Amino acid sequence: MHRSEFEAFVLTLPAATLVRQWRDDSVAKVGGKIFCLLDRDPGDIWLKVLPISFDLMIETPGIRPAPYFARAGWVAISAASPLGDHEIRAYIAEAHRLIAAKLSKKLRATLGLDQGAIA
């Protein structure tokens, strides 16, 4: 997934914001918390996944524990992985849901996030 596609998709998610930080990586946040990012070089997508997904995904070629983030259940998906854009978008949406669900009730309300839809 190219940067423009990644950024356009991320911004379709409720209350998602996008910043460029670190080495000009595209970093997606909800409520100020990171839920995924596009590592500009080499172009890997890093995102939060469920523990069971983490264990299964890191055994897939082209997917590895995300450096610095792995202990929190993050994977890095390279272009060499067998996942298509549709599957990657689904994982990004799930990462958004996982992080949004951890936000305080007050912040979710402020952001217009429906508790029932993200829990």
Automatic annotation (TrEMBL):
PANTHER family: CYTOPLASMIC PROTEIN, CYTOPLASMIC PROTEIN-RELATED. The keyword Ribonucleoprotein does not apply. GO terms for molecular function: DNA binding. Keywords: DNA-binding. This is MmcQ/YjbR family DNA-binding protein. It comes from Devosia aurantiaca.
